[in-house]
Give the backbone structure.
Amino acid sequence: SRWKNFCVSDSFEPGSTIKPFTIAAAYEEGKTTRNSTYFCDGYEVVGGFTIRCHDVSGHGTITTKQALAYSCNDALMRIGFDLGAKKLVEYQRRFGFGAKTGIDLPSETRGLVYDSNMGASSLATNSFGQNINVNMVQMAAAFSSLVNGGNYYQPHIVKRIEKSTGEVVKTIEPNLVRQTVTSETSQLLRTYLRAGVDEGLARKSGVAGYAIGGK
């Protein structure tokens, strides 16, 4: 227990913080656009289950940008269905979910990512962050790639190792692992995440004098 660090050792359901990744995947695959609209009546019946939006009265007709800003489960389910289980899982893994990041800390968990054989109800809930499990470092690394142009860097703690005299023994250089999304999709998601703070449910995260994006 002394070596356990909940940021890497424990996993959790990310919930709505997974929504930007589902939307980014849909943009990459041409399954949604800036002009796409979705109708939210507060719920979807999928596989015999009634899966509700957090706004049970419904958001009405909204754009993809508004779906993220308002955190609409109903719209995300529709986007997830259009994307399909195979592509959803492919992008979840591309963003590093379901695999160890390789951070220089012990006892890292892989989390839990479904395979592409998941049923319709699991696809619906995975699209907005339920059932999938991630650790905090996975989420931080994935979000960084989402907003920095699509560059996924291996997260690390140690920047350099020095002797007591100050002589540098080793420097840990940034390790670019892969490209997760295009720079165009990354730029678009930055504007969407900022809209979530400026006009959506994350307004309390705003800081005067700063352009803040968040989910």
Q: What stands out?
A: The mean pLDDT is 96. The longest helix spans residues 183-198.
